[in-house]
Design a protein that fits this description.
Blueprint (H helix, E strand, L loop, with lengths): L8 H20 L4 E2 L7 H5 L14 E2 L3 E2 L10 H6 L1 H4 L6 E3 L4 H15 L14 E6 L3 H10 L2 E6 L7 H7 L5 E6 L13 H9 L8 E5 L17 H7 L6 E6 L11 E4 L2 H11 L8 H11 L2 H30 L5 E3 L8 E5 L4 H10 L2 E2 L17 E4 L6 H24 L4
Helix pairs in contact: 1-14, 5-6, 8-9, 12-14, 13-14
The structure holds 4'-deoxy-4'-aminopyridoxal-5'-phosphate.
4'-deoxy-4'-aminopyridoxal-5'-phosphate (PMP) binds next to helix 5.
Pfam families: Asp_aminotransf
GO molecular function, one term: L-aspartate:2-oxoglutarate aminotransferase activity
Keywords: Aminotransferase, Transferase
Length: 426
């Protein structure tokens, strides 16, 4: 296909008329499609239906004769921590299980840091001008936590193997910089996985703040889409080897393993950080929902059971990614109207459109019945300097809806690119 930039103005005009007609025809179908949130589909949730009757009437004694119905067990059941140890890449005794949302744990951890400080410094973060580095494109809810809690954000571009580490290393020379958001595997939304080199540099870099923390949100650890299962290094071990044993806070959950509305969330870190975390948690709860922890153990059994379950998830999800990517390729390939990566896991496809067209694409799509995540959502403060990045979430809609949405998105992307190139204001 000819790139738009190489077309003369007459060809561009006739291409515009053709794509505009395609757009009007798509709009006339009166569809209602939603590609906004990375939620599991009902079929994915059905995979965990057997959990709804677990642990079962009479099955409430956990290891060591612990009565899971009762208060207590602030750090979670040992068998649950063991079950998820490989997924989280932390020893079971350095894992805390609590709540059903890892975002709640991230939020709580930052609130505690702001009010009480973290190990390696007694000063509460709120005494300074706490600042986080935010790899972009990134997860809008990470950025929302920072905005909500008054933490300044500095965007850092992603490179294909994690954030631009030269820039990160420069920025952490400022003692106000207290943290960095990282989604190290199948990142939200670019799908990229951090390289060993990136992880090593994060673990070893010299930070002006002694209490700097990596928020290692390993939300997609077992969420593979292909046979090429990505691996990431053991960040706790890398930090310890580099002489920064307390640097990483790991977060994870079973939201997209079992049931997001009734999952388990995890915090893992160095023994000192775990002690600090539990000291704070003590004031918030007398103990987590241990029946749910037992339910997960009875259902998934062990790491092999978890992997087999995730394979079933992949069988439902992968065809939707495939359909989306095939349609993007068929309609946009070679036009120069957009670029995208083929993710090997996770929940998203990032579409990088022609600079200055993302907002236009979202509004064209809306008019045609397709809800897209707002342009800018993948940047701190919702501001994409280049107005080009769109996050597509194909898991929730049915396969036929994903196909229809992909077609519509491709048409909108092409139309916006042609308008921009031809100087047509739609
Ligand atoms: N972190 C990332 C990177 C995510 O993409 C998501 C879900 N979209 C979450 C956290 C939310 O996790 P939870 O349900 O455990 O709060």
């Amino acid at each position: 296909m000819t790139t738009l930039t190489s077309m003369d103005s007459e060809t561009l005009r006739s291409r515009h008329d053709a794509v505009r007609a395609e757009y009007e025809a798509f709009k006339a179908r009166g569809l209602k499609l939603d590609m906004t949130r990375g939620k599991p589909s009902p079929e994915q949730l059905d995979l965990s239906n057997a959990m709804l009757t677990l642990p079962g009437n009479g099955d409430y004694f956990a290891e060591g004769n612990v009565d899971a119905r009762n208060y207590g067990g602030l750090n979670g059941l040992p068998e649950t921590r063991r079950l998820f140890s490989q997924m989280i890449q932390a020893p079971a005794d350095q894992i805390v299980v609590g709540d059903n949302s890892s975002l709640a744990l991230m939020h709580g951890t930052i609130v505690s840091a702001l009010l009480k400080g973290v190990p390696d410094s007694n000063a509460p973060w709120s005494e300074g001008a706490p600042t986080f580095l935010c790899p972009v494109p990134g997860y809008d809810r990470h950025f929302a936590i920072c905005e909500e809690l008054g933490i300044r954000m500095i965007p850092v571009p992603m490179t294909g193997e994690g954030p631009d580490m030269d820039m990160v290393e420069r920025l952490v020379e400022d003692h106000a910089v207290k943290g960095i958001w990282c989604v190290p595997k199948y990142s939200n939304p670019s799908g990229e996985t951090y390289s060993l080199e990136t992880s090593r540099r994060l673990a070893a870099m010299k930070t002006a703040a002694p209490d700097f923390r990596i928020f290692w949100d390993n939300a997609y650890s077992v969420h593979h889409l292909t046979k090429d299962h990505h691996t990431i290094p053991d960040i706790l071990a890398l930090c310890a080897e580099a002489g920064n044993p307390n640097r990483a806070f790991i977060f994870a959950s079973t939201s997209k393993v079992t049931l997001p509305g009734a999952g388990l969330a995890f915090f893992a870190s160095s023994p000192e950080n775990v002690r600090w975390y539990l000291e704070r948690a003590f004031f918030r709860t007398i103990g987590p929902d241990k029946l749910n922890q037992l339910r997960h153990v009875r259902f998934l059994k062990d790491h092999a059971g978890l992997e087999a379950h995730m394979e079933k998830q992949a069988q439902i999800v992968a065809p939707k990614f495939e359909a989306l990517l095939q349609i993007l390729e068929a309609k946009l390939g070679g036009t120069g109207a957009a670029e995208w990566l083929r993710p090997a896991g996770g929940y998203f496809v990032t579409l990088n459109a022609v600079e200055g067209t993302a907002k236009r694409i979202v509004s064209l799509a809306k008019e045609a019945g397709i809800a897209l995540t707002p342009a800018g959502a993948t940047s701190p403060y919702g501001q994409d300097q280049h107005d080009r990045t769109l996050r597509l979430a194909p898991t929730f809609p049915s396969l036929s809806d994903v196909k229809a949405a992909a077609e519509g998105i491709a048409i909108c992307t092409l139309l916006a690119a042609i308008e921009k190139q031809a100087g047509i204001h739609g």
